[in-house]
Structures are given as structure tokens and as C-alpha cells.
Amino acid sequence: FTFAPAPTANLGIGTRSRSSSSKALFMSADTPTVTLGIFGGGTVGGGIVEILSKKQSYFQQLTGKNIVVKKICVRDASKPRDFALPEGCTIVTSYDDILNDDTIDYAVEVMGGTTDAKDVVMSALQKGKSVVTANKALIAKDLPEIEKLLSSLDSSGTQFRYEAAVCGGIPVIRSMQSDFVGDTIQQVSGIINGCTNFMLTAMDRDKKSYEDALAQASELGYAEADPTLDVGGFDARSKLKILMRLAYGMDVDEDEISCRGITELTKIDFEYAKTLGGTIKLLGVASKNDKGSVSAFISPCYVTNDDPLSSVNGATNAIEIVSDNLVSSIYIGQGAGRYPTANSCINDIVALAKGDTTPLPFNPKSETKFANNYESVFFLRLNYRDQVGITRQVGEVCENHGVSIHSILQNPIAKSQESAFAIVTEKVEYASILKVLADIEALDWCKGKPFYMPVLREDWQS
Ligand SMILES: NC(=O)C1=CN([C@@H]2O[C@H](COP(=O)(O)OP(=O)(O)OC[C@H]3O[C@@H](n4cnc5c(N)ncnc54)[C@H](OP(=O)(O)O)[C@@H]3O)[C@@H](O)[C@H]2O)C=CC1
Ligand SMILES: N[C@@H](CC=O)C(=O)O
Q: What GO molecular functions are on record for this protein (predicted)?
């Protein structure tokens, strides 16, 4: 390949640029090169390689450098890849092939997991390689340790970027790192898992079964390697934890965040949601209360049809940030999939190659406390064996825990042994709802675990 020499602006800022030494790998003998080692050649890794190939000369103009993928580390080197290997790039299976290669400037970690991925990221940083990752599970777990390492490094040119880790293609990390300095964030909420939003849309709108919806989401590259992380809400919880750190400077223990995925949802919940004039979305919500502490949860939520979130379908994500100055900012875009996610990694890679440093220091650690409770209107669904006095007993249980009932819905009973009705409460504490549910579950007519979900806006019926 021969390209015209690129402008030489920005050379050497934040990177260890060199002149190229190999014609096969490098496009021009006198254009500096930044060399990548990518850990992972799957959905995201493949997308990064494809975009880099497609926009190679544009990136050269933009950064003044050739951005070259030298090695891709995978688990199984013999597996066919669905992307073309760049010329001169080799597939390797040992992390050290990248980590110990001094000609590699940036490590891109897109293999997932939290054990080997952590070793790879820490080791790359220690060796002076800037790191770009899409791994929310790792960041949610280990960002403080990574930051500590970063601050101990001699070279401020060694950077760590993770735009793709939250909501795939939406540039929300960058925005939260740089656009809210003069603002105070009160609430961060929204649809932050593409796989489950795709599934809920497929089940509700397209009448697909849960299994078919999940199979299709996996096929399209939306699901995690272990889809339990998606359907169980854990992937969304990792992202919410990262957003909470950026919004409030707090490091909450992930396990403290109430986390319910979409596995408890049944057809009847969608039917009742429809009767109420809305639908169901898996949401992450972190909100400051009037005492200054922050509560958070991942849960299916009832959303009215006139709420903007109700029409966010497929793998699209949407995050609303409520803050004192900007009031409400909504970010909508593709939250999962090859190109949206790779696009965010590419933005990080190109920013590094240009010599940009991370917009601002990460939000400094604050003393903000986590409160494992929140207030909401709740939707409850109870499966029961029909008998006299059920609604009276439910009313009594609610009264015992100070929970006021707003309405009760019951579709005509088709099978007396297998019926379900729904209750909508007034605004109450989550802790009270848990007590109500425990008492109801102990009643002899109650079949299985009652289901509950918050109703998104407290003014939903006013
Ligand atoms: N897919 C998406 O929409 C998004 C994904 N992410 C994150 O990006 C990361 C990658 O996701 P994705 O591309 O979908 O995952 P894939 O499962 O598609 O790809 C993972 C790649 O990593 C390789 N790999 C996995 N484990 C190892 C290991 N121990 N040693 C060497 N190579 C390994 C695999 O090798 P092999 O091919 O040989 O099996 C594969 O090439 C994850 O952290 C994920 O959470 C973030 C946002 C969106
Ligand atoms: N599995 C994740 C991928 C992106 O983060 C999702 O579906 O959101």
C-alpha cells in the first residue's frame, strides 16, 4: 500500500509513535504508525477491524498516523472469522504475544470476562500500552483498581478508555466525563441493555416466544457470551454502576443494587400492561433522594404509551439524565451489536491516536451514600387458585404494611386453578412492597412467586 504522507500534527502526544518498518504492515515509510493488539476477534473485535480497514486513509488524515492492527488474540485460532484479516496481521492465542510485543502501542480488550481480561488490561497498562475496552463487567468490578494503577504510572500518555462499555454506540461516557462539570445530576435512568430490549420488543410487538427472541438476539450479536448476564439484568447492573460512578463519584457494591431481569415476565404481564395503556421495559434507574443519598435498581418497569421510552424498540438504548442545569437530556442510539459497539471503540482509538487525553479526570470519589430503598407506584401480579375472599385478604395484607391500593385488574377467569390478577399501588416504599409480597406468597391460594415492577413515572395517571 502507498499513501501520501500524512500531516505531522499531534505526533507523539500521548502515544509512542514510530516510523514504520514493514511495508506489509505499514502504509507509508515515513508516516508514523500506531499499532494495535486486539484481544478478541468476535462481534466487537471483528467490527473494529472492519471499520479500521474501511476508513484507513481517513483516519490517517485525521490523526497523522497509520493505525495498524498487528495481532488479534483469540481462544481458537482455527475458527473461521467473519471479517477479513488485515494484511500483515496475525492471529495469536497467547496474551503475551501482544503484551510482550514492544511494537504494540494500544491494547484493545474486547474478549469479555473479568479474570483474564483484568490481567490483560492491567498488564498492558503497566507496560505503557494505552487500553481501549468495551468490557462493562470488568470496569464495573475493577475501575477503582485500574484508576489507581493509572495514577501511579509515570507516563501520562498511557490512557484508558471505555466508551463502548455502556450502551454500545451511544457516547454517554464521554458526555458524562465532560459535559456535566457545572451541573448536578439528580437521576440517570433508561434502557441500558440492547439484548433484553430487543427481546421484549420481539415478545410484545412481534409475538415471538422468549426462546426465539433470545436466539435471534444472540444471532444478531446483542447477547453476552453468557446471556444470563442480559436476561438476569446483570449486564444492565454493571452499566448502571459505571454510570453511578460518573454521575455521583460513588462506588457502590454491585450486589447492593436490586437486580431483576426479564425472566419472571409472563404473557399475562404484557396483557395487563396493555390494558393499563402501556408496555414493559427493562430499566436501570439511579436517583438521588432528598436526603442526598442515591438509590438504584434494575427491573422490568411499566411504562405508559405516551412515555418516550415506550417507543424505544429493538436493540436501541435510551438514557435520560436529569440534572439541575440541563434539566433533562436524553441519549438514544444502538446499545448493542457489531458496528455500534465497534464505533465507540474506534472513537476511543482515534482519540488516542490524535493525542487526546481523557476529557476530564474521572469523577472524583465522593462520600455519597447508597440507599437500598426507593419509592414508586408498583404493579403487582398474583397467580392464584380461585376461591372466595382473595381480594379481601390482599387488601388486609396491604393495609398491614401501609400500602394503599390504587386499582385492581382482573381479566375474566378462564381456568379457576390458574388465574392471575394485577394490583397497582399508590406510591410506596420498595421495602413495604417486599413485605406485602412475602405475606401474600404465604397465603394458601397464591401460586408461585408474585411478580412486581415499578411504574416508571409517579404521575402516570394524573
Ligand atoms: N456484542 C455487543 O453488542 C457488545 C459487547 N460488549 C462487550 O465487548 C466484549 C466482547 O463482546 P463480543 O465481541 O460480543 O464477544 P464475542 O463472544 O463475540 O467475542 C469474544 C472474542 O474474544 C475471544 N476470547 C474470549 N475469551 C478469550 C480468552 N480467554 N482468550 C483469548 N480470546 C478469548 C473469542 O475467541 P474465539 O472467537 O476464538 O472464541 C472471541 O473472538 C465483551 O466484554 C462485551 O461485554 C460491549 C458492548 C456491546
Ligand atoms: N449484551 C449487551 C451488549 C452491549 O452492551 C446488551 O445487549 O446491551
A: homoserine dehydrogenase activity
Inter-CA distances, 257 with 14, 17, 96, Å: 37, 43, 36
* 221 Cα nearest atom in ligand 1: 1
The preferred substitution site among 228, 229, 235 for testing ligand 2, maximizing ligand atoms within 8 Å of CB, is 235
181-335: what CATH class?
alpha beta
* Burial 164-190, CB ≥16 within 10 A → b, else e: bbbbbbbbbbbbbbebbeeeebbbbbb
**Residue 73 Cβ < 6 Å to ligand 1:** yes
Q: 272: which residues sit within 8 A by CB, 6+ positions away?
A: 379, 381, 409, 411, 422
Q: What is the pLDDT of residues 31-64, one digit of tens each?
A: 899 999 999 999 999 999 999 999 999 999 999 9
Ordered by start, the domain boundaries in the chain are 18-161, 181-335, 375-455
Quick one: CA torsion of 128, 132, 134, 136, rounded to 10 degrees?
50
Question: To the nearest whole percent, how much of the chain has pLDDT over 70?
Answer: 90
Work out the burial of residue 88: count CB atoms within 10 Å of its CB; fewer than 13 is exposed, 13-18 middle, 19 or more buried.
middle
Instruction: Yes or no: say if 417 and 342 are a contact pair by the CB < 8 Å rule.
Output: no
110/186 Cα distance (integer angstroms): 32
Q: Does residue 108 contact residue 34 with C-beta atoms inside 8 Å?
A: no
Q: Give dist(CA 48, CA 55) in Å, integer.
A: 11
- Whether the CB of 230 sits within 6 Å of ligand 2: yes
**Residue 141 known to be catalytic:** no
pTM (2 d.p.): 0.92
Return the ∠ at Cα 19 (arms to 18 and 22), rounded to 5°: 115
Q: What are phi and psi of 135, to 5 degrees?
A: -90, 90
| Closest to 335 measured CA to CA, from 204, 456, 200, 211 | 200
Confidence of residue 4 (pLDDT cuts 50, 70, 90): very low
Per CATH, domain 375-455 is 3.30.70.260: yes
Strands 375-384 and 316-323: unpaired
The question of ipTM being above 0.85 is answered as yes
Pocket residue to mutate for ligand 1, from 38, 44, 343, most atoms within 8 A of Cβ? 44
Distance 146 CA to ligand 2 centre (A): 22
> Mapping DSSP to helix (H, G, I), strand (E, B) and coil, where does residue 292 land?
coil
Q: Which of 70, 136, 239, 241 is catalytic?
A: 239
Q: State the pLDDT confidence band at 24, using cuts at 50, 70 and 90.
A: very low
* Cα 41 to ligand 1 centroid, rounded to whole Å: 7
CATH fold of the domain at 18-161: Rossmann fold (3.40.50)
